[in-house]
Amino acid sequence: MIYTAERPPVGTVRDWLEARAQTDQTAIVFPDTGDSLSWHDLRAEAARMAQGMFAVGIAKGESVAIIHPNGREGILALFAALFGGFRATMINLAAGPDAIAYALDHSGARFVFLHDSQRETFAQVAPDGMQILAPDRLEGTAPLPDLAPDDHALLMYTSGTTGKPKGVVHTHASLLAGGWTTAVAHELGQEDRGLCVLPIYHINGLCVTVMGALVSGGSFAMVPRFSASRFWDQAETGEITWFSVVPTIISHLLHGEAAPGDSLRERLRFARSASSALAVETQTAFESRFGVPIIETMGLTETAAQVLSNPLPPGTRKVGSPGVAYGNEVRILTADLQEAPREQEGEIAIRGPNVMREYLNNPDATAGTFAGDWLRTGDLGRMDADGYVFVTGRLKELIIKGGENIAPREIDEVLYAHPEVVEAAAFARQCPRYGETVEAAVALKPGAQLAMDDLMALCQDRLGAFKSPGIIHLLEELPKGPSGKIQRLKLAELIPERAGA
To answer: Are both 428 and 290 inside the same structural domain?
Structure first.
């Protein structure tokens, strides 16, 4: 099968895996072990396991939990579930026992693929009667059920920072479309190899890198987790041509001592940043030091990852913007859910083949997320005359001080401008005088001796006293979700309020 920029992929994940398996082209390499899988072998293992799953009584469309870090076993479990027509239910290993217990129970899964490293956690939270699938023992000969593009394929839970996690349901069509928007925007071909360093229980790792390779016919290198000291060596060993990461990883690479060798620099076409806004200073410094262009993008779990991307060089990349729409439509909504004029701030909304089917067993949340057939993202932004979107904040993260809206990202940008700052996030603190006041937290590069008073002075010089943090907290590391995205809304509860502040 060949993808085109004009139309989304047709068929199912099974169809595309069958097509890729007609050759012995490499699908996945594992730099840490030297192991690899061809598309042919991946298809054969997925089909064998899927038939075994069907033989033990798992029904088409039924949730099958996958509790695995990145690795050969986890990727085989994912493709087995997708190939068999089951609903692959990816469990966030970083979510904590309560959230994992909720997802296992809410999904209705009766069976689970379980990595050995997760057995202790599973024993604490597993619903009664849940059965562990042993991949080596899955055997069967009965034909698998037919699949349609609109059948359920993936169940992935949101982080639940403002309430119970929601189970995002994607079909085979929307899952493939998620890989397609990536392939189209980045012009991926059979010669391209991505680096899957983000966990596949996060939509970025699963759709951008894994589905992007399936749709484009390329391949990917997979490592268990991000390591700043090993990243460039793993990228070299994996012979990658591009990678997708998040701003915190870019910042850690920038401030680390390791650097790519000449052969890797020549091979790397681009680096891709997503999941949260990339500070302008960080992007500029990274490109200057490493000579690798960063393509800033934007995506959501609900949209099978990418909705916006900057063009590849020599196209116009607008620093500070996640770009323009590829494969879907984007508009800015006013408060009354009408399309906003260009340059006016409003809520970013998405329409396209990559949009989710629903939130599982939650019709009210599903209905509240859509305005007609437009998915409301909860992100604030504006669109310029060229169609580039500039994200200005999150509706739920806005700091409202004395009735004035303050976008935390504006403060983050100033903090990241200091060369000693590796991680930064501004957040709201309840305040009897103003309703909310501004605080921030930072993590510094190793050995830094920067005083927080100096950072506060920098903010006041750039932003003025009203928008500047009243307190800046120094932490070893800021709290993050599974993709490495800083969880701003957790800071106020994690950091004790200072007396008299």
So the answer is: no
Domain co-membership, 376 together with 419: no
Helix (H, G, I), strand (E, B), or coil: what is residue 299?
strand
Q: What is the CATH number of the domain that holds 427?
A: 3.30.300.30
Q: How far is CA 354 from CA 33, 90, 396, 420, in A?
A: 34, 18, 24, 39
Residue 152 in any domain: the answer is yes
Assigned token pair, 477: 């590391």
Residues 254 and 289 in one domain: yes
Half-sphere exposure of 344 (CA within 13 A, CB side): 11
Beta pairing class for 374-383 and 242-245: unpaired
Number of H helices, E strands in the chain: 16, 26
Instruction: Determine the pLDDT at residue 407.
Output: 83
Same domain for 308 and 244, yes or no, is yes
For 290-305, how does the pLDDT look when each residue is reduced to its tens digit (9 = 90+)? 999 999 999 999 999 9
Coil, strand or helix: which one is 150? coil
Of 257, 241, 255, nearest to 209 by C-alpha is: 241
Q: Which residues contact 131 (CB under 8 A, 6 or more apart)?
A: 56, 110, 111, 112
pLDDT tens-digit map of 115-142: 999 999 999 999 999 999 999 999 998 8
Residue 45: name the closest of 138, 149, 132, 147 by CA. 138
Does 405 lie in the same domain as 368? no
Q: DSSP state, 302?
A: G
